[in-house]
Amino acid sequence: FILLVWGCFSLKAQQTAVQNDTVEVASYDCYISQTKQKLRKKLFASTSPLHLRVNNSDYVFGTLQFGKRKGKIYMYLQILDKNVCIKRDKVLDVFFKNGEVVTYKNDFDLNCDGYFAKQMKKKEVQKLVENEILQMKIYTYNKNYELFVSEVQNVDIDTQLSCLQVYKVKKSDEVKVKK
Fold first, then answer.
1. Helices 122-130 and 151-166, packing angle to 10 deg
2. Residue 44 and residue 34 in contact, taking contact as beta carbons nearer than 8 Å
3. Can you list the pairs that 163-168 forms with residues at least 24 positions away whose Cβ atoms lie under 8 Å?
4. Exposed site from 7, 93, 99, 112, fewest CB < 10 Å?
5. How many Å apart are CA 76 and CA 49, to the nearest integer?
6. CA 129 and chain centroid, separation
7. For every one of its 179 residues, what pLDDT tens digit does the chain have, with 9 covering 90 and above?
8. Which helix (H) or strand (E) holds 123?
């Protein structure tokens, strides 16, 4: 009888441990969306955003998203914090597992909404696909933000960029709107 009761408690404890342990799983689906909306009078497509945790701030996250417009791939990063002023300069460092650091310039205007945008060259896209990212650092007027990139998010970045490279942005009459 004691073994039966102990077995039930043990099984319940294992189920609780499994339910409380979160597992992050990479998505091998492209999740590219395109609407009839235009950005600067051009049609565009975008991937689903990845949510990156900021290492050096509590309860602050950033979103990383890729898009395609006029055959070019763009990287968008937003820090989700109050009053994040990003200048139009070399403000983003990407640290790779192999020790290399690449610095990117913000193509977006000076803003205090935390937006960074970069039109990527083919070599820059290949660098992101072929190398594992450890972290990203974005430099702002008030504070520098360190964003952690997990192994699963690296797989998602590779998948999204690979999908965007071959994706053809559709003309507005080809885009189907979901109802």
1. 140
2. yes
3. 163/30, 163/32, 163/47, 164/30, 164/32, 164/45, 164/47, 164/66, 164/67, 164/68, 164/73, 165/73, 165/125, 167/30, 167/32, 167/45, 167/68
4. 99
5. 9
6. 13
7. 443 333 333 333 333 333 334 444 445 567 788 877 777 778 889 999 999 999 877 889 999 999 998 899 999 999 999 999 998 888 999 999 999 999 999 998 889 999 999 999 999 999 999 999 999 999 999 899 999 999 999 999 999 999 999 988 877 656 555 54
8. helix 122-130
| C-alpha to C-alpha distance for 123 and 34, rounded to whole angstroms | 25
Residue with the two structure tokens 């965007």: 164
- Local structure of residue 64 (DSSP, 8 states): E
Tokens of 97: 């597992």
Scored b (16 or more CB within 10 A) or e, 127-139 reads bbeebebbebbbb
Rounded distance, CA 50 to CA 156, Å? 8
Length of the chain: 179
pTM score, whole prediction: 0.77
